[in-house]
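Side project, low priority. Logging it here so it doesn't get lost.
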Amino acid sequence: MPAEECSTVEIAPCFQRVFIVDEDPMQRTALGSYFLNRGVHEVVQSSNGALACGRLVDADSHDLVVLDLNTAEQDSSELLAHLEDTGYQGALLVIGGPQSKMYQSLDHFAETHDLNFLGAITKPVNYMDLNELTRPN
């Protein structure tokens, strides 16, 4: 490929503070490194939704929440309710496929609460898909 056709893909610069909720510590670390390597200033991690609620204290605390729907369903539901209660209006990216019960209501939830629902990716995370979902519009 000629050099003029090569380009660096711009990824995630519109997110300065990312919150990752995933019970798998290796996945949290990998996702955290992914975002930090792309210019995100702060990545906060939590192993479950209940703990995350204590750290997401206001609507402006984070630009992007990455939520694994395969954590305990109650944790995911609790975190989504908390996002609603705080008035969060940032972006939401879920890890989990369309087969998840939670996923089926997320698009509607995001629309009614003015969230930027980026979409869903499955595990193992395909970083090309993540690049596409987090690329600035």
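Brief comment: The domain at 17-134 is CATH 3.40.50.2300 (Rossmann fold).
Revisit when time allows.
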